[in-house]
Amino acid sequence: MVRERKGKRILAAALVVALAGGMVQNTGASPIRDAQDKINEANEQLDQTNSQISDIEKKQDTLQKEIDSLDSELVALLLDIEVLKDEIAQKEADIKQATSDLKQAQATADKQYESMKKRIRFMYERGDNALIESLLGAGSMADFLNRVEYFNQIYDYDRTMLTEYQETVTQVADLKQTLEQEQQDMVALQENQEHQSKELQEMLTKKRATMDDFDTKLAQAEALATQYKATIQEQNEIIVAEQARIAAEEEERRRQAEEQRRQEEERRRQEAAQQQQQQQQSNGSGGSSGGSSSGGSSGGSSDDGGANPDYRTNVSGQEVVNFAMQFVGNPYVWGGTSLTNGCDCSGFVMSVFGHFGISLPHSSYSLRSCGQGVSYSNAQPGDLICYSGHVAIYIGGGRIVGAQSSAIGIATQNATYRTILAVRRVL
């Protein structure tokens, strides 16, 4: 009966120790699990934020390249506008000179005409008698023939000089008209370039505003990433601290269990000794009844766990020229690419060559570097003739075809009407 009570007490003690250890483990598991859940959530959000940062940086890189390209194009366009202003001023000076030359030529022709009229009037007023007297006054047949030849030479000279002067007047007038038309074309081109410059500046303003917005979003995303990293570090510290607390409590539990086990063994030893002494006293010196007493012992155990453009084609230049000439007379539309409904100078070149499967940029500035550069003296039909802010197709014989201006449309003209910056061969 005594042994049964001892066994129950030992079992109860072991259960208390085991329950205490389980409570410690359950108490510690919840903070660690919560911290780990927060780390997992923060890691997932950090991955998403890093992905957003990478996406923003790629968009910034792409946008910066676009801004750099637009900046370059704008600088080139502004330079083209300045060059064109100088060419317009030079053309205006040429027109003034042509006007002066025209007045001089007209005055010379009028003077020649007046001189011829005076000689004719003199001969008419004097009548044929003066001519006859002059001829009859000849001293010999040779002198007579010389006088006849002299009168004929005067007549032929008057007619020849008058014809030459009249042709000069016509040529100078035609030159003046050509210069005035070329000046109008360049003024229209300048207006188009200034409009294009304004649009480029507006595009740059918008893109720079977008870049500023990207900078703001990037700063916000980086701030979030910093917060998530701080959360992860904080929760890791919580886990480490919680694991240390659990380990300390587990060690204390083991120590208490060991102490309790030692005390229980000491108590059982004392009880056994006391019982043996009592039996010896009750039996006296007579025999003794042997018996064995056994005490059950139970131990608790716990698991120590823890948680821790080269362009080469088979197309001939003449084929390109023949195709391009079909659209002479069609309208000019700034920014357009339609050969029938309207296009600008680079749009005309791009669409003509595109018909033959040759891809060229829609930019007179970019076309200056396409293909292979050749000299104007070696230009062939189908080559690109590049000017400041303008481009056309060489058709041979010193002529070009291209979309000139809104006033002229698609037309042909002299290739050297302006300063040629480059001749590019893309065939």
List keywords for this structure.
427 residues, 6-stranded antiparallel beta sheet, 6 helices, rod-shaped
Number of β-strand runs: 8
Amount of helix? over 70%
Number of helices: 6
What's the arrangement of strands in the largest beta sheet? 3-8-4-5-6-7
Which structural class best describes the helix and strand composition?
A: alpha+beta
Overall 3D form: rod-shaped
Q: Enumerate the spans where pLDDT stays under 50 for 5 or more consecutive residues.
A: 1-8, 10-27, 286-310
Strand content is 5-15%
- H/E series: HHHHEEHHEEEEEE
Distance between the termini: 117 Å
Overview of the molecule:
- The chain is built from six helices and eight strands.
- It has 427 residues and is of the alpha+beta class.
- The strands form two sheets. A six-stranded antiparallel sheet has the order 3-8-4-5-6-7, with helices on both faces. A two-stranded antiparallel sheet has the order 1-2.
- The longest helix has 143 residues, at 141-283.
- It is rod-shaped and about 210 Å long.
- The protein starts with a helix and ends with a strand.
- The model is unreliable at 1-8, 10-27 and 286-310 (pLDDT under 50).
